[in-house]
Amino acid sequence: MVDLTLDGPRGPKPRRAISGRNIMIYGTLIVVALYYLIPLYVMVVTSLKGLPEIRMGNIFAPPVEITFEPWVKAWSEACTGLNCDGLQRGFWNSVRITVPSVIVSILIASINGYALANWRFKGAELFFAILMIGAFIPYQVMLYPMVILLRELGLYGSLTGLVLVHTVFGMPILTLLFRNYFATLPDELFKAARVDGTGFWGIYFRIMLPLSLPIFVVAVILQVTGIWNDFLFGVVYTRPQYYPMTVQLNNIVNTTTGVKEYNVNMAATILTGLVPLVIYFVSGRLFVRGIAAGAVKG
Amino acid sequence: MKRRVILAATTAMIGCAAYAEDLEVTHWWTSGSEAAAVAEFAKAFDATGNKWVDGAIAGSGGVARPVMVSRITGGDPMAATQFNHGQQAQELVEAGLMRSLESVASADGWRDIVHPASILESCEIDGEIYCVPVNIHSQLWLWLSNDAFETAGVAVPNNWDEFVAAGPALREAGIQPLVIGRQPWQASLAFQTIVASVAGPEAYGKVFGDKDADVVNGPEMEKAFAALATAREMTAGSNVQEWNQATTQVINGQAGGQIMGDWAQGEFAIAEQVAGEDYTCLPGLGLADIVSTGGDAFYFPAIDDPEVTAAQEELARVMISPEAQVAFNLKKGSMPVRGDVNLDAANECMRKGLDILANGTVVAGIDQMLSPDAGNQLADLMVQFFNEPGMSVDDVKASFIDILEYDS
Amino acid sequence: MAQSNVSGRPFRLFRNLNAKIAAIPMILTALVIFVGFSLWTVVYSFTKSGLLPRQDFVGLMQYERLWSNTKWLISIQNLLIFGICMLVFSFVIGFVLACLMDQKIRFEGVFRTILLYPFALSFVVTGVVWQWLLNPDLGIQSVMRGFGWESFAFDPLNNSRIVMFGVVIAALWQGTGFVMVLLLAGLRGIDDEIWKATRIDGIPTWKTYLFVVVPMLRPVMVTTLVIVTAGIVKVYDLVVAQTNGGPGVSSEVPAKYVYDQMFLNQNLGQGFAASTMMLITVAIIIIPWAYLEFGGRKRG
Question: Is B87 helix (H, G, I), strand (E, B) or coil?
Answer without folding.
Answer: coil
